[in-house]
Design a protein that fits this description.
about 45 residues; mainly alpha; 1 helix
């Protein structure tokens, strides 16, 4: 493989890793939001 191909591939791999991290963070945030909403709902019904 040429240097350009290797560079492109490593950029692609880095981009995929970043996308996966962002998706993971977004999912964790969504779950936290759900828990907070459930907690708020429980607090208002008592």
């Amino acid at each position: 493989m040429s240097d350009a191909q290797l560079r492109r591939q490593s950029e692609y791999v880095r981009a995929r890793a970043r996308d996966a991290r962002l998706a993971q963070m977004a999912e964790a945030q969504r779950q936290a939001d759900e828990r907070n909403a459930a907690r708020a709902a429980a607090a208002t019904t008592t």
